[in-house]
Design a protein that fits this description.
- By secondary structure, the chain is an alpha+beta fold.
- The chain has one domain.
- The chain is built from four helices and three strands.
- A three-stranded mixed beta sheet has the order 1-3-2, sandwiched between helices.
- It is globular and about 40 Å long.
- The chain starts with 12 loop residues before the first helix and ends in a 10-residue tail after the last strand.
């Protein structure tokens, strides 16, 4: 099963995503959450310690694109970029702002 949560900013996407992940994990499903928000907060909403959340690196931008120079399997992404947290939920960042640019 795959569930995507999207919408405009400030409508509770992170809260809903974390709640769904916890419900499915509590029902013994394997859960992989991908936070693709450039300002990721799903790790904190899932109960990861702040130091773990801040240390996470996003997966390569085009990791699964067919025309990418290098593609990765899901297992490779999880072992290199994923973390396992509370309730055995795996989390991967799809994006992360490293530094602000002038605009």
């Amino acid at each position: 099963m795959k569930i995507g949560v999207s919408g405009k900013g400030g409508v509770g996407k992170t809260t809903i995503s974390a709640t769904l992940a916890r419900i499915f994990a509590a029902r013994h499903y394997d859960v992989l959450a991908i936070d693709s928000d450039p300002n990721p907060n799903l790790a904190l909403a899932l109960g990861f310690p702040p130091d773990v959340a801040n240390a996470m690196k996003p997966m390569p931008r085009r990791a699964f694109a067919k025309d990418a120079e290098q593609t990765f399997t899901v297992d490779e992404i999880l072992s290199s970029y994923g973390v396992r947290g509370p309730q055995n939920i795996s989390l991967v960042l799809g994006a992360k702002i490293e530094k602000a640019a002038s605009g």
